[in-house]
Write a structure and sequence with these properties.
about 90% helix, mainly alpha, about 90 residues
Length: about 90
């Protein structure tokens, strides 16, 4: 039951992320460059979440569900933040 609730939260965060990206592109002067930036940031976030979740799952053992959740969130946030910093 908890996993279903977390799944809904994750979908909501994806929709929020897409909405923020669309707004950033809409508000930008150079829409083509901003589109590339948003694609890079979102792609890095997805890859970082997958890598962080996988690494946490391998390291945790019995606490894997909690570790994967935290590892995925931290990995995705760090990767997206770093890509945004590098793009500037």
């Amino acid at each position: 039951m908890k996993m279903m609730q977390l799944s809904r939260v994750a979908r909501g965060l994806i929709v929020l992320s897409i909405a923020i990206s669309v707004y950033e592109i809409y508000a930008a002067d150079d829409k083509v460059s901003e589109s590339g930036r948003q694609i890079a940031i979102n792609g890095a976030g997805i890859a970082g979440a997958a890598a962080g979740g996988a690494m946490a799952g391998l390291m945790c053992g019995p606490g894997a569900p909690v570790c994967v959740l935290i590892g995925g969130f931290v990995g995705g946030a760090l990767a997206a933040w770093e890509m945004g910093r590098l793009w500037n």
